[in-house]
Amino acid sequence: MVETRANSPAERPSAEGLGADLHLDHLGLRGRHGLRTSLTNALREAVRTGRLQPGARLPSSRTLAADLSIARNTVADAYAELVAEGWLTARQGSGTRVARRAEPGRAPKAGSDRVALRRPTPIRAPGARFSLLPGNPDLASFPRAQWLAAARRALTAAPHEALGYGDARGRVELRTALAGYLARARGVHATPDRIVICAGFVHGLRLIGSVLRGRGVRTVAVEAYGVPQYYDLLTDAGLRTPALPLDEGGTRTAELGSLDAGAVLLTPAHQYPTGGALSADRRAAAVDWARATGGLVLEDDYDGEFRYDRQPVGALQGLDPDRVGYFGTASKSLAPGLRLGWMVLPRPVAQEVIAAKGHVDWAPGSFDQLTLAEFLTSGDYDRHVRAMRLRYRRRRDQLVAAVAEHAPGIRVSGIAAGLHAVLDLPPGTERPVIAAGAKLGLALDGLGDFVHPSARELPAGSRGDGLVVGYATPPDSAWPGALAALCEVLPR
Amino acid sequence: MVETRANSPAERPSAEGLGADLHLDHLGLRGRHGLRTSLTNALREAVRTGRLQPGARLPSSRTLAADLSIARNTVADAYAELVAEGWLTARQGSGTRVARRAEPGRAPKAGSDRVALRRPTPIRAPGARFSLLPGNPDLASFPRAQWLAAARRALTAAPHEALGYGDARGRVELRTALAGYLARARGVHATPDRIVICAGFVHGLRLIGSVLRGRGVRTVAVEAYGVPQYYDLLTDAGLRTPALPLDEGGTRTAELGSLDAGAVLLTPAHQYPTGGALSADRRAAAVDWARATGGLVLEDDYDGEFRYDRQPVGALQGLDPDRVGYFGTASKSLAPGLRLGWMVLPRPVAQEVIAAKGHVDWAPGSFDQLTLAEFLTSGDYDRHVRAMRLRYRRRRDQLVAAVAEHAPGIRVSGIAAGLHAVLDLPPGTERPVIAAGAKLGLALDGLGDFVHPSARELPAGSRGDGLVVGYATPPDSAWPGALAALCEVLPR
Known about the structure:
The structure is a homodimer. The first copy, chain A, is built from 15 helices and 17 strands. The first copy, chain A, is an alpha/beta fold. In chain A, helix 6 (144-157) packs across helix 12, helix 8 (201-214) crosses helix 11 (347-360) and helix 14 crosses helix 15. Chain A starts with 17 loop residues before the first helix and ends with a helix.
């Protein structure tokens, strides 16, 4: 699962996707004081909250007006108002920018001696209009009305004790609903007592990391490509994170024996971000390793519901529920803002996680847990996932077709699944393509942002250059423009 | 506002002519919360900004009242409030003065060794019918309909980006609403950028613990009575937690200098669980210590909204927002199941907490955050707190009356505040009383469950035997039975 880097300071100085993000219809609805005022307020708030950082260049009034399908004068008036108020500056030749104020001096944390797992500095267009960064579902498609209706049913029916501190495992209603759903949809061997609710994958990984460390584990093997924050988190827990090599068949789990690891973190259904599925023999090898050594497989099933060419391959956890810990999340299927995830764990691990959790937190809130339980049991969840599957599949097909037409030399690799695709690029072109995208206002991520530092030296470590295209990210209004910009920067 | 003549350096140490310059009519116009509050605020502001200098003597309440043509009691109340908050001092023979922030010489000493922090095994009735355990509000009184209505308004109005991974500080809507509320209700110096949303106090304390440890802090002083899980949590973060002694005036913060601590965890408004308020000079001593040593005061304001005999004493944080980190929570005012808390932090600490939080979690969910923001701005929160204040006050009065009638030798100690009271017991009777309660199906907690291990040896450490009665815990239907069972087991 991808806890997106959209929080990374490096991305702050941009105004990417601004038009797409301003939600004109929504503004219009709220616009008691008229569209211009609503737009002015939305922009001011974006500056005030730091979503638009000092120095960021805004789209031209013509561009933003086109994005929002409103009159250009409305945008120009809003800009003028905010320039007058001091929020923005306008200069000949450099366009409209967020005013620079005093630097918010940040006290740098005293450097620990942990290994620096730094990703390359992303290239970002100061005035990015489109984002194809991976990690987010289409937030505009969140089923607000159904969710609110489920919340009403759930909270109305909840016993009073549901409002109390509660069970460190999470609400039994949700664990019961998930046990049924995960068995049916993902082949997970799940019973409510094996399930622990957490506030997303990062929270779950933190808990597992501290449990593993408490058991004396020193090393958690990871994949050659992945999310650098996860390595950091495990490193913070006192664990080393050597990487396994990767090739066309996926992560080479047969080499686990050479790493002296106590656990391995895998994305078997859809390797993140390279996009392959772990082959059957390598799935078996991971479980065999765990059985032989007493190790634990951590299965990050971040987008297992989204497969477009066939029925999804069942979770690895089904092969051996006593050796595999399964991690799922609502961040891709519903919305990251819910901060809802779940772990299905071997019973002894579940007990240790609960003990660790009991002392330090009870997150997430029981209302959201009860609402998700209701959403699952009412069938709303299945309906939503089916609708999004069609939607994302269509987007992926459009991406494949557009690349075939405009850049026939570029291969779209990985299985037809999930919320992102990988475009393989000729050697040496990844950074230039990202830079060219930035110039057009298109935010892109390259494979190089996800490669494990040690994997660069592995024999089959590096997959070469490529783009990781998050085709679920833009709202419908921004999708055609994002796709066109992408095709424009791809090498022919 | 206090437009005093004290601007001339020669006049700084006095506040003569204060009354003439206080502009009553202006105060009256501002006085949405009453003249007393306006006067209190004006005086506090004058001290905070230095217009009234340390050591300056204020006019007598009689003189100032005559000057302002208001009731003397209004002035006396305002003075008393500011004395309680630590802004002013009142001494026989020297009148009321602006508090001096004297530099106490730092006397660092080798800290105590880490002690085993085990609480006694609680006695629990397996089939307890009643609970008077402290820590929960009356869950049956949670305003479900109003909360759902606020959730609908909040989620309907939310921009799409609110459903994304979001800001590690928490939603700006909630931080803005809290800044206003906390300033008004608790005298907290709060701006949205100082606020960090967390999943309850435990989550916040974990974050602060890791930040302190990262700064090289080794020791966090705690109170002689408190919640053992908090000590455990700090201990897990690699911090020692020596206890300060406690006496009738509260925690002896003047002894902070002897502990070589980098921070101190306090419950100034309502010591948990012994129930006293920290005296004005000890509030001042804590801030003085922090200023002199660069230490941080952690103010756990878990139930500051609930005071029944008078206006609540303002938060200690107001005395020095750069030295005090304030912690609030919805767990007592609304429901623990929400897992919603907030920290108001010195800016550098806020930045470090955000950095720590950015990598490991974004909890809690944005829907609950947006709903609480709506609940605050709509006035629902104030209405609910007012209603609960009446309800809990009635419960406390009934408890006091019942104890006076059935066990007249037992003193109900602590201030009339919060969700629990302490019943002082004769030596040696605490455990037998709890056991007798368990036999009747009544779950009770004793003071012994909350005493810090090292405090048993402190000169003024142990308060002796007692019960910590959570009178908010039972629903209305169970309250009379719980009270009757309690009276039955109290020694006569």
